[in-house]
Amino acid sequence: MAFDLSxxxxxxxxxxxxxxxxxxxxxxxxxxxxxTESVERQRRVGTAAIGVCIVSAVFVVYFMAVHATxxxxxxxxxxFRWIVDxxxxxxxxxxxxxxxxxxxxxxxxxxESHVLVIFATSGMMILAAARDLTIVFxxxxxxxxxxxxxxxxxxxxEKSAEGAIKYFLLGAFSTGxxxxxxxxxxxxxxxTSLTLIGERVAxxxxxxxxxxxxxxxxxxxxxxxxxxxxxxxxxxxxxxEGAPTPITAYMAAAVKAAAFAAFLRVFxxxxxxxxxxxxxxxxxxxxxxxxxxxxxxxxxxxxxxxxAYSSIAHAGYILVVLASGQALGSSxxxxxxxxxxxxxxxxxxxVVALGQSGEPYLNVDDYAGLWTVRPWLSVSMAVCxxxxxxxxxxxGAGFFAKWYxxxxxxxxxxxxxxxxVLLVLTSxxxxxxxxxxxxxxxxxxxxxxxxxxxxxxxxxxxxxxxxLSTVILLFLGVYPNALVSLTQGKGSYLRAPTPQVSQVVxx
Amino acid sequence: xSMDNFGLFYQFHFYLFGIIAIVSAVTxxxxxxxxxxxxxxxxxxxxxAAEYVMLDAQxxxxxxxxxxxxxxxxxxxxxxxxxNLGEASDITDVRGIGGKLLAGFVGLxxxxxxxxxxxxxxxxxxxxxxxxxxxxxxxxYGAVGAVARPLYRDYSLAFELTSVLLLVAIAGxxxxxxxxxxxxx
Lengths: 507, 185
What we know:
Low-confidence stretches of chain A: 499-507
CATH superfamily of chain B: NADH-ubiquinone/plastoquinone oxidoreductase chain 6, subunit NuoJ
Mean pLDDT of chain A: 89
Number of strands of chain A: 2
Oligomer: heterodimer
Number of domains of chain B: 1
Number of helices of chain B: 6
Number of domains of chain A: 1
């Protein structure tokens, strides 16, 4: 199936999964505005929202199955987009499922909390598809504005309000950088289409090199804020700590995956011709992010902050893919976000399951001796921690995720050996905090006071999220080929620009 | 309306409005009273609108006056009024000396960047629009049509996405702004 994106009906058809999310969101918004707020209503709307995700995912799988393609246009129709979409939809369903139980416990009654997740995801899916800088910008904004509000959803928590304001101000600030960068790139190349920018940059058919480079630099800063790269990560720990836990998982996994998908597409499709100029900057960002994220995580005791810093470190690992500077690295990226999303949702699922109203006990030491009271939760948490660490077999897919990233760094046209070494070294540092969680759960005696409460029943939705994440992680750890064949399949790579020699004119 | 036709008259007004815009922008950021600052911002917006007219972008100029100098400034003033920020003494200046120096430094970089860009010659290539492109568009489609055609044709998807974005922003503001229902704990 090939779409002709210049015709609006075909453009709409190519956007079916995204439009389903938007329309579903609008309908559910009306439903949730109708009548009074109650726990049952919140759960009903949440369940329907998961249904919307499933319908959208069905269409994504259909497009994958029929190998949909498209000519050049404002959106991409390729496997890269579909796989990112599936990860995002899975993360969304997971967020809403965790939210069903979490919101009930914390008394977050507005059913809109689930609807906004749907809207944020529609923005992310647009981001994964965007092949035009205006669409990239709108996707980022649609995603960010919904997530700002979600962060502040817990109205009784001061931390939640603080996190929302911080996220909003810094997010708006970083959007300024991104937008200014987009304007300069448009000024330098005369187009917002990634494909055309790629061709013109590769052919040196640009108006002004300083303008282009300034634009690329500003966009790098803008994306750096969105995916929380050091030194643009300052907002992340406070925001992750303040947000409702399901939303923290959503930010750590889905927001990061979507922003990185656009980041990679913009830099590898549009700016591939300028790799020598931006490579050094990306190299140092990756190196600093890996070191800073892991070192501060080592000093964190609050489980949500620990996972926040760990997510910063993982942004560094993913950036290694970009630093290797080849479109083929996109398959390593796809595998990585699948493994990372599953592990993140498993871990946050356990945090939700063990939490109490008001979330008083989030210190890692409060999990001491968890094995003796909640064996299955402890095992799931251990698997997720080992997966984030990149431990073979017991860590499931996490090991292969890091393995493919290292491979993409080593087999790049210019091998990034030092970056690969740094990745391994910082992963060893990360064992210090991931293994500590495991150690505390299994080997420390259970404390009598200030610990997570006695065994209570964990909500069915939360149990499903934890269980599915763990099982899929372990399955992919044994049969990684099930996923590799998808991520390395036809159309999974980003389209690198091909300079047309006839267009080259002396500058 | 090109520069050659009007010569000195055109240049005089172009620089006049430019200088007023810059001076009022500087005054805007240095005022302590939010109301005074907002008023200076209106002056800046109006001068920019005048510059747009001289750049043959009449429609953008009209929008600038209606939206920025009109609607958005009214919202600013409403927020200032609702938060009761009218008195300058109520507000502590959160900007430290380090922040001011940093902002000044970034400003200098941006000025230097403009300098470099104006000095960089623009090659006459295939992708560079012709000098009379805008006046042709204006003559063919009119001031509104020249904006509307690309907006609803080339950027139709972006236009539609903006509507979803605004919907989410409005809904979000309502959700955060409304009172919690009595059934909540």
